[in-house]
Amino acid sequence: MAVSLGKRKRPEPKKVVAKKTAKAEKSESDSDDDIRARFQRAFEARFKPLETPKVPVRQDASGDESDEAEVQADSDWSGISDEEDAVEVVEHGPGIELDREEQKREMKAFMSSKPPSSKESISNIFKAKSKPTEDEAGESDNLKHDLALQRLLKESHLLDPTTFGTAQSTNEPSGKSRLKALNLRLEDLGAKKGIMDQAKMPLSHLRGIKAKAISRESKRRKEAAENGIILERAKGTMKGKPERKRERGVDGPGVGKFRGGTLSLSKKDVRAIEGPKKSGFGKGKRR
Amino acid sequence: MTTAPTSAPLKFTGSKYLAQRLTLATLTGRAVRISQIRPGNHANPGLAPHEVSFLRLLDAITNGSQIEFSYTGTTVLYKPGLITGSAAGYGAEGGVLQHDLPAECERGVSYFLLPLCLLAPFSKVPVNVRFTGPGVITSSTEIGDVSVDTVRTAILPLFRSFGIERNIELRVLQRSNTGKDGRGGGGEVQLIFGHQVRLPKTLHMLNAGRVKRVRGVAYSTGVAGANNARLIETARGLLNQFVPDTYIFSDVSAAPLIAAPERNNPAAKKKTGLGFGLSLVAETSSGAFYSADIASPPSGGEAPEELGRKCALQLLEAIEQGGCASAVAAPTMLSLMAMGSEDVGRITLGRDVVGSEGVVQLARDLRAFGMSGWGLREGDEEEEIVVSIVGRGVGNVGRKIV
């Protein structure tokens, strides 16, 4: 059976159907095409019409196709099958040429003191690290923009109107607000301690800072009271609160201090153990 | 503490396979008496320097070994102790056991490394031995020892298939070829074997696969690096036709200096161990290794091109023999299989490898030490034989007790 050259090309679906109905004899490939066409029609009925890849050369050829087919129908040449179309390429190259960087890696992997592991080949690693395609690049760009927007929304309260214009260019806060933003991000990630907190400080400085804070607060309250503004209730000052007992070690004594093999009790401890002293009157009341 | 009933020591004769027998004795805990060691050699009867050195090494890494020589050194009685490794307090300094090889040593350092690698998985603590002294030859020798590079790249990866893979290192601190008149070098090698097991895993290697890549190391000590380039050029020229993924690395180092005191200059030193060599390793898709080794003879007079060609041909021959282990690696693998759990392990070997003198002798020696016999059958491919070995579950005595 003569399969014309034109059969290999993807014809318009209608055309194919017409041909199929006209032809009594159907080859395997023909029936395959038929099924394909049916599927396509069913698909197109439900969804959008499919785009058939149009190759201009093929369309030009389709004009002479019928003539050619007629000519070759008589000859016993059965045409070129699709399998033969694919060109098998065999290369006898000089071997895998590694560039300098790869050479160094491979050398390090092989010439180290450890027995070389056969699991990962260096060349495979390089294959995997191919250049990102345009889609991937766009995706990563989108992700970047997304992150930037999220951050801007979160940290917008840090933006200083005076520096707003200058910081805009980089989209990143600068100066002190940069540190603040960084602190926020770290807190988001679960940092316990801010980066702004000073770890160590002379006690005199710390006292000074605390005293200043207290005086500032008291001043504010005083001014508010003078102006008749009602403020939030003052938090209980440190002095008023009773000191909570410190956690003791499991093996330590429940009371007093154990030092140098002796348990020493302070007067306070003794008083606590003895309980409130009973006065003479109290004794009299008991029956 | 009760002591096991002492059986009469196993008797062997001859100096051949001395290291192998001593290793098996240490692994199985059987005493051996080896007699008639070079009785006919009137100039140097008895144990050779490298054999004495090997006994000293065994003494160093075990605890409670007894070694008795006869007056002439033609008979040695060895009662092995426990393999302790480089335990502190047994001669190891800072966890490293230093082993000096004498200048008269003719064998390459792999003569010591291969048995040590076989013992190390069964030791109590990690083995860390540094070979120093004027007798360390890191290159391959004409007697048939492989180079340290081959040990590292072709033998040590095999332990992986037995489940022994962590903390294994072989550091070449100083390279050295064979010194003048074929003895002595000046190299320095450190073996760290930090993975100890109770029993090696049962091995099933039936398909050797096909060679996927060839790697190699060309080394020259104290001679021009151009020798390396010439070695590589010819070896690659031959191998590239078969395996495009061929790569040979070059290592150029200065000649080692060893002390050579003179009367008016007691601090004098001299260069030794000059030369060059090549180690090639072919790896297959299923993890089998074939290796080839060559080094310039101490007398010189061989062109690097010729040696490179020989080495490549040697590698092709090893590949042709087939199987999952080359003749170099077979004794190590077979011994480890025999030490494994009481289960049948199988390995495919080339017919020529199974029929080689070393492997046949190993089978006999294992039998003598009370191990089970081997089962042989035809492999799937021609020229291949499947060797089935039932382990005896001897394994690590030190691990069993502690």
Automatic annotation (TrEMBL), chain A:
An annotated GO BP: maturation of SSU-rRNA from tricistronic rRNA transcript (SSU-rRNA, 5.8S rRNA, LSU-rRNA)
Compositionally biased tracts (Acidic residues): 62-73
Basic and acidic residues compositional bias, start-end: 22-35, 97-108, 232-250, 266-277
InterPro entries given in the database record: FSAF1-like, Ribosomal_biogenesis_FAF1-like
Chain intervals with Polar residues compositional bias: 163-174
Region: Disordered, residue numbers: 1-35, 47-142, 160-179, 214-287
GO CC term, one of those recorded: nucleolus
Low complexity biased stretches: 112-123
Pfam families named among the record's database cross-references: FSAF1
Biased composition (Basic residues): 1-21
Protein name according to UniProt: Protein FAF1
Protein species of origin: Acrodontium crateriforme
From TrEMBL, chain B:
Keywords for this protein: Nucleus, Ribosome biogenesis
Family annotation (InterPro entries): RNA3'-term_phos_cycl_insert, RNA3'_phos_cyclase_dom, RNA3'_phos_cyclase_dom_sf, RNA3'_term_phos_cyc, RNA3'_term_phos_cyc_type_2, RNA3'P_cycl/enolpyr_Trfase_a/b, RPTC_insert
Main location: nucleus
GO biological process: endonucleolytic cleavage of tricistronic rRNA transcript (SSU-rRNA, 5.8S rRNA, LSU-rRNA)
SUPFAM superfamilies to which the protein is assigned, alphabetical: EPT/RTPC-like (SSF55205)
GO cellular component, one term: nucleolus
Domain RNA 3'-terminal phosphate cyclase: 11-342
Residues covered by the RNA 3'-terminal phosphate cyclase insert domain: 207-320
Location of the protein in the cell: Nucleus, Nucleolus
MF terms in GO: RNA endonuclease activity
Family matches, as Pfam families: RTC, RTC_insert
PANTHER family: RNA 3' TERMINAL PHOSPHATE CYCLASE, RNA 3'-TERMINAL PHOSPHATE CYCLASE-LIKE PROTEIN
Family: Belongs to the RNA 3'-terminal cyclase family. Type 2 subfamily.
Protein's name in the database: 18S rRNA biogenesis protein
Lineage, top ranks: Eukaryota, Fungi, Dikarya, Ascomycota, Pezizomycotina
